[in-house]
Amino acid sequence: MPEKDLDQPNPLAPLVERAVAEVVVPLLRSFLAPMKRAVDANPELPLNIAIGWDAYERFKGTADYHESIGLIRHRWEQHPLGYLHRGLSGRAAVEFFLTVKERDEEGVLDALEPVLRSSQFLATVREAIEKAPVHDGHARQQLAAGINYVERGEWALAWPLLIVPVEGAFRASARSSGVVDDAQRLRSKEGVRRRAKVEDLFELLGLEKAFQVFLQRRVYGRIANPHRHGTPRGGHRRQSLFLVVALIGWLEAFAQPELVTQLFTRLGRELERRQLTTLQDRFQPVA
User: Fold this and answer.
1) Which residue has the higher pLDDT, 43 or 78?
2) How far apart are CA 177 and CA 156, in angstroms?
3) What percent of the chain is helix, strand and coil (3-state, nearest 5)?
4) Is pLDDT of 74 > 70?
5) pTM above the 0.85 mark?
6) Given pLDDT bands bounded at 50, 70 and 90, which one contains residue 38?
7) Burial, 6: exposed, middle or buried (Cβ in 10 Å; 0-12, 13-18, 19+)?
C-alpha cells in the first residue's frame, strides 16, 4: 500500500471548515448565548447549579430519595424541628433537610448557635423582652441574664435562668387570655378544675401547630425533663438554644410580631453560608 503524502492537502478539509463555520459555530452560539444571558442576569447561576448537584448527590443517599415531595413535607409537619424548617425556603430549606439527615440535631444546633449569639439579633430580643407582658420584673431580669449567658456561650448557666421564666411567659399568657384561672387551673371534661401542665396550654393558646410540636417534643416533654427536674447530664447547649427559640416564638405571638421572621432569615443565611463553605471544601483544587 503506497504511503500517504502528508504534505498533500486533504480535499475534505474545506468542506469540514465550511461545515464548522456555517453549522457547528452557529449552533454553539445559539446554545451558549442564552446561557450567557442567563448568567449575566443571574451571576449566581453557576453556583446554584453546583449547589443543586451537591444537594442531589447528598440527597440520593437518604432514605427519602424515592419518596414524593408531598410525603417529605407531611413528615416535616410532624417533625420536632419542622417549626424551624417551615420558615426556610430555597437553598436554605434544602440544606436544613440534608443537615438533619446527615448530622441530626447537632448540625441544626451548629447553625442556630451563631444566629442566637449574634449581638445585633439579641439586642432586638432584649428590646422585645422589655416590652413583653411577662409575669413580673424578676422574670424579666432572669430572661435578660439568661440571654447574656447565651451570648457568651455559657450554656450550663444559660438554661437554668431561662427555663422557669419561659414557662412562666406561656402561663402568664394563658391567664390573661382566660385559658386558666389565677391558680393556673383549667376545666377538665368532667367539669373539675385541675392545674394545667404547660403542655396543655399550647393548643388552647392557639399557637401554630408546628410551634406546638416543637415545644412539646424539644423544649418540654420527655427529652427536656432532666433539665426541668434539675438532673441533666449534658445537653446544656441544646436546651439553652431551644429555650431561646421558644422565647422568640412566644414574643412573636404575644409581644413582638416579625421576630420569628428575623430568626428564620438569619438562620437561612447561616445555612447558605455553611453550604457554600462545604462546596468550597469539596471542590478545592488539588495542589
Assistant:
1) 78
2) 33
3) 70, 0, 25
4) no
5) no
6) low
7) exposed
Tell me the C-alpha distance between 72 and 74, whole Å: 5
CA-CA distance, 147 to 141, in Å (whole number)?
10
Around 110, how many Cα atoms within 13 Å sit in the side-chain half-sphere?
14
Q: Are 141 and 172 in contact (CB under 8 A)?
A: no
Q: Residue 193 pairs with which residues in a beta bridge?
A: 187
What's the rounded Cα separation, in Å, for the pair 138 and 264?
29
Q: Tell me which residue has cell 409581644.
A: 255
Look at the block and give the residue holding cell 463555520. 21
Q: What are phi and psi of 187, to 5 degrees?
A: -85, 130
The residue to which cell 386558666 is assigned: 180
Q: Is 244 left (phi over 0), alpha (psi -120 to 50) or beta?
A: alpha
Q: In degrees rounded to 5, what are phi and psi of residue 100?
A: -65, -40
* Residue 287: Cβ-neighbour burial (10 angstroms; 0-12, 13-18, 19+): exposed
| Residue 153, CA distances (Å) to 31, 146, 246 in order | 53, 10, 18
Q: Is 187 helix (H, G, I), strand (E, B) or coil?
A: strand
235 φ, ψ (degrees, to nearest 5): 75, 20
Please state the domain extents for the chain. Answer: 119-258
Joined grid coordinates for residue 17: 471548515
